[in-house]
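does this look right to u?? zinc ion version
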Amino acid sequence: MRVPAIAALALLAAGPPVRAAVNVMTATEDLADLTRQVGGDRVKVESIARGYQDPHFVEAKPSFILKLAKADLLVVVGRELEIGWLPPLIQQSRNAKVQVGADGYLDASLTVKILEIPTGQITRAMGDVHPLGNPHYWLDPDNGRRIAKAIADKLARMAPADAPYLASRYADFDRRLGEAEKRWDALMALYKGLKIVTYHRSWPNFADRFGLDVIGYVEPRPGIPPSPGHTIELIAEMKRQNVKILLVEPYFDLKTPQSIGRETGAKVLVMPPSVGGEKEITDYIQLFDYDLGLLVAAIKETGAK
Ligand SMILES: [Zn+2]
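got this back:
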């Protein structure tokens, strides 16, 4: 009987049944890329915030309510980074899976190293947008590694049959990130202790990891716009410590940074803190390649050390 044999071959050629991809929404593009790195073709991922936006202040477009309504998993940065825009989207999605604390809600900050956890009483009423520690923690590659692991583990619990695939994707990401870290360490080896100033407190994890010393901020407190008195003090301190580099996240007004640059001779360097912050920055490893490349070029240009 030849026909059944052919039918059997056709079945074999079709392969195992195709499972639907897990539908993932993330708060930021960094989390979206880390999800893609480990999830591969088993996930469909979209970020709500764009990498060129201030992640504290994102426009809560209603179109995201519909997308969240269909999501299986929502990955957030946490530490109240998204408190100004994400809660109403989650609530209005009426999707039980992704409500805070549900199985499909993953707070990436729970497995990473968090810096600047306040010791005293700090509330948002004081205007500080980092009341639970610094939420820009993805800018240390080891935290990126931990986030990727947390996402892989979560996806494996949601689709146990995919666990081996997810584990091998994670192992491959871990290996590529490790190789990149060697490259970054070699690039930054000469500049340990370099003094810089940044606009917002976006870079403590980055500075810690790459040996930079952030001696001041353009914002008097995270989320509080520059004030003349604070700017004058900052200029004096930058002159005293001979700071030649001022990092500015792409979504801040350059007026104050440029006047500080004129007064101190420091270079104003616009540096994106997220995947998607520039169109070349399409993934998490490229984010560091891009930023460290910009930084080293600025160091060489200004003769800072
Ligand atoms: Zn912040």
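The mean pLDDT is 93. idk if thats expected tbh
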